[in-house]
Amino acid sequence: MTLETVKNDFISHLNKISAYQEALGLIFWDLRTGAPKKAIEQRSEVIGTLSSEVFNLSTSDQMENYIKQLNEHKSELDELTVKMLEECEKEFNRNRKIPEDEFKKYVVLKSKAESVWEEAREQSDFAMFEPYLKELVDTTRRFVGYWGYEGNPYNTLLDMFEPGVTVEVLDEVFGKVREAIVPLVKGIEQSAVKPDTSFIYQQFSKDAQREFSLHVLKELGYDFDAGRLDETVHPFATGLNTGDVRITTRYDELDFRGAIFGTIHECGHALYEQNIDPALTGTPLSGGTSMGIHESQSLFMENFVGRHPEFWKRHLPSLKKFSPEQFKDVSVESFLSGINESKPSLIRVDADELTYTLHIMIRYEIEKGLFNGEYEVSELPDVWNRKYKEYLGVVPSNDAEGILQDVHWSGGSFGYFPSYALGYMHAAQFKNAMLKDIPDFDQHIADGDIAPIKNWMTEKVHRFGKTKKPLDILHEATGEGLNAEYLIKYLQDKYAALYDLEPVK
Amino acid sequence: MTLETVKNDFISHLNKISAYQEALGLIFWDLRTGAPKKAIEQRSEVIGTLSSEVFNLSTSDQMENYIKQLNEHKSELDELTVKMLEECEKEFNRNRKIPEDEFKKYVVLKSKAESVWEEAREQSDFAMFEPYLKELVDTTRRFVGYWGYEGNPYNTLLDMFEPGVTVEVLDEVFGKVREAIVPLVKGIEQSAVKPDTSFIYQQFSKDAQREFSLHVLKELGYDFDAGRLDETVHPFATGLNTGDVRITTRYDELDFRGAIFGTIHECGHALYEQNIDPALTGTPLSGGTSMGIHESQSLFMENFVGRHPEFWKRHLPSLKKFSPEQFKDVSVESFLSGINESKPSLIRVDADELTYTLHIMIRYEIEKGLFNGEYEVSELPDVWNRKYKEYLGVVPSNDAEGILQDVHWSGGSFGYFPSYALGYMHAAQFKNAMLKDIPDFDQHIADGDIAPIKNWMTEKVHRFGKTKKPLDILHEATGEGLNAEYLIKYLQDKYAALYDLEPVK
Lengths: 505, 505
What we know:
The structure is a homodimer. Among the domains of chain A are: 1-96; 206-341 and 442-471, no CATH class. The first copy, chain A, contains 21 helices and three strands. By secondary structure, chain A is mainly α. Chain A is globular. In chain A, helix 10 (257-274) crosses helix 11 and helix 12 packs parallel to helix 18. Chain A has a three-stranded mixed β-sheet. The A-B interface holds A 15-16, 19-20, 22-23, 26-27, 30, 34-43, 45-46, 48-50, 223-228, 240-244, 246, 281-282 and B 15-16, 19-20, 22-23, 26-27, 30, 34-43, 45-46, 48-50, 223-228, 240-244, 246, 281-282. Chains A, B: GO terms for molecular function: metallocarboxypeptidase activity; zinc ion binding. Chains A, B: Keywords: Carboxypeptidase, Coiled coil, Hydrolase, Metal-binding, Metalloprotease, Protease, Zinc. Chains A, B: Its cofactor is Zn(2+). Chains A, B: This is Metal-dependent carboxypeptidase.
């Protein structure tokens, strides 16, 4: 068999995996957006069949052969094939190192744990979830043993979501960010400025919120010929292929922020996936390069575009058209002051821009401690509450608003949370670099002319998909490695202005 | 390997095929209900991959082995396994008899022919479509050669959609029906009764039509926990699994009939699929037993329930709530007279209950002639126009409203059309048998108490899925074979009353 034939067979094999994943993506989207409830039982079987097939195709002897044969001629291969090969090899090694029966048990455990978590959260009863969480942590610890690690066992988990980022890196940047945020939070607490937020909690019809969301999406460059907007309990974006990247949002008729900022956030994710080079379609390279870079795109859109003062100078008038009574007497200034109110709170997903990162740090420290052997699962509620007291000055009154609030751990996702904060730092760093190429950034926002901003991101980030590693993208786009200073500076300037604080030198 | 093991492996194999088919079903539903247009290119690849997999699994050496091994012990197998085996064997033999390269060419040809047909219909240009239709007919003739036939080559095609029904049967029943309909059509033409249909063509908002449709669906027993109603250009019902049977309808704000009767029609299909024995889920037996029986369910709901005078005595008041101006001065009698207007027309899908069957007969005679060697493709527009003149007294002024109006042939579906008329006959025959068990049928409709009617159909038809052959279902439910008399009597009585005709003795 010639190398060309092996390569073509390998790519067909990858196309097949990608086709099954696309079908799975549609099934998940459908389950969340409106599949009838009696569909679920049999649909789960379909998910099981397709997922097993993906797993089998990714870990088969055939895949092993492709990897072996192509590695023998790596120097003769084109760059794209090399990237695909490396991606597959990584996945293959990760999966093949786990004994098959343990992996199967783990899949079953995750699916059970998720439904137990749901129940436990409803009843606010950590004890109910505890044995499952323990089992998940134990299994993950064992898997890390199979996979191996450098420096710190938790590094291996971090690497799955943010290749190249380690405990050492995170400790440093999180330390800096924390050092900057804590005085800001204190300053705000003591500030005489008390934003009027009463305009937020007023009737704003769902239909009108949707209309406004669509209006904003168009301006941000979301391509409706390659996507659609639906409603779900938990908003998300899903890229089925680059021509079909769907977003969802949720509508609270007594608090429009969830829908508007949620939509803009998901739009950032969607712009990433819509603008990946179509040549990568059908390969494992057609997707975001990491969770952190993905989150940088959504947070960039949400915070650096969607909360920009010029954005609301432009859009408050149209908001007034959609809900005239509500915004009648609201000025741009009081609008910005209201939507940017910062207040320590218990629930991560409802947190403001400033305190959000503290929520992430708490989870990071707990996860790190779990895999370092510092904490055991049984201590977690105490650790959680202690850290909330320490970082945010608030203490959950029950498990539901504390340790049980997030779904991630029930799905075995350890190492994922830090990406949220990393994404935030990346976003600020991209913004800073972008200003050099687009010095009239503010004017573009004021004019609703987002194309140059979107195009910059496509040029520097989107189009590469997974062909570049996250830290390489960051470096090539901004000229440096991970740097928390841009986020810190942004938060300091923003909140000093909003709350009339002493500017930080 | 024990027989038990072979059987279990066989069933797992079938579950896998079923899972892929369910995923495909969802993909098709999604493409029709709202997938963004740029999704299509890559989604087609996904369809190709999954369809090939289904084809491969159905025709693989492994399938051949299962069939061989199970057939050797057929007498030791339970009834359900025997049915599955027979179903798979039929499919296997049909597909394996066609040389692989010819089959592949055929798949490509069909997909090309469909888009050419669309273009040709738009331009009303049969010449554009002719070479593709010729190729499709030639290929199908060759396939019939591989498959073999009894009596008439067209029988083999009929058997694919309506097992057990032959040209001999159809010639007889269609002859009788035609003999009865033609004088009715003439009588109506000469009748002094001219229904007032002006109330139909008035503004009826889409939202209100949808609300009314949902209202009716609930009453008919459609389970919304196992389905949903969406909007498409061409209405359809699709059973993904028995817990997820979706229907679609279309809304014309200046003619409510399409939405209302379309919804009721698709509801009939959906009730069939929702009420198949769940034990058959994941096997090839979980589906309608034939096109004709499926159509009997939709036409039963549409015509025998949805056009029942008692149905409208009950529902006209709620219709008046949904569109007050439109129906303000419309009595039940004039409503029924208007919606049941019969008038020869050119387009099958817009035809009334009485003339519909004539449209089907024309297509039947053309198809039969094509596979008998009586007609060549090039003659079809002439044959078509001549037959429309003869049967309906109207002549298309162009190909778009004549020979090019239906999609079926462009997809290679020859032998499908007669099912529509058979379904109509079955429906009338079921109704007649049902009356013996539910003599107060009319009262149930008047009370909106449809459950006993639906349950009768579930008991006699739905639950069996494909475990019984269509003619067996018909015979067991009605005590006799296909009998056109019930439909004839129904049409004679109905139109005599509506148009004040001499009753037929």
